[in-house]
Each structure stands twice: as C-alpha cells, then as structure tokens.
Amino acid sequence: MDKIKFLMTDTGAQTTQLCRQALEAKGIDVTVCEKNGSQALKSLLEEHPQAVLLDAFMPDLDAITVKQRYETQDTRGGHTTFFVTGAFQSSGQPRTESRRFHQPPAAGIAGL
Fold first, then answer.
1. Are residues 82 and 110 in contact, defined by beta-carbon separation less than 8 angstroms?
2. Main-chain phi, psi angles of 45, to 5 degrees
3. Is the CB of residue 7 less than 8 Å from the CB of residue 34?
4. Could you report the per-residue pLDDT of 12-67, keeping only the tens digit for each?
C-alpha cells in the first residue's frame, strides 16, 4: 500500500515540526511548502496529496481560491481532502484582510 501524502503550508517552525513528527510517526509522507497560495497550488499540482492543510489567510491566494484552482487544474481525477486553519488576533476577532476572502458560516464548512 502506498503511503498517504499530506501537504501543509508552513505554519511556523514549532507547529510545523510538531505536525510533521506526529504524521510521519503514523507513516504519512509530509511535504511542507512556503506559506503562500501560489506555492501551495504549485505543490498541490506536483504532489497530488490525499490531504492538505492550508492557512486561510495566505499571501497572494487565500485557501479557498487555492482549493478552487486546484480542482479546476487537477486532471488526474483523484480525491483530496482539504483542511483550512486561520489565526485570530489577540482581540479574539477573526483576522480579516483587504483581499477577497469569505469566511463561511460553520454549517458551510462541510462543503469544503
């Protein structure tokens, strides 16, 4: 059986290292890419992982845009499960940026 491939954007050295160690201990092949949407999309199209962890607020392309572009550009017809994470400011309010990013309601996340 082939190893499961997991791609994640760099979420900071300590978190990335902890995630990588935990996943690799379970026999999962982990690829870490730079924390920007263009690099994440490029790595997705090259690696074709079964699971992906993206930061919702990456520079240049947000996580939803990366997912949508991947689905239109991936021609192999495989299935990839996406996980999206986002940071909160110290005020406890979701971080918002000037880019067009829609934060779906909790019920809408199931559609990702």
1. no
2. -70, -25
3. no
4. 778 888 889 999 999 999 999 877 899 999 999 999 999 998 888 888 888 889 99
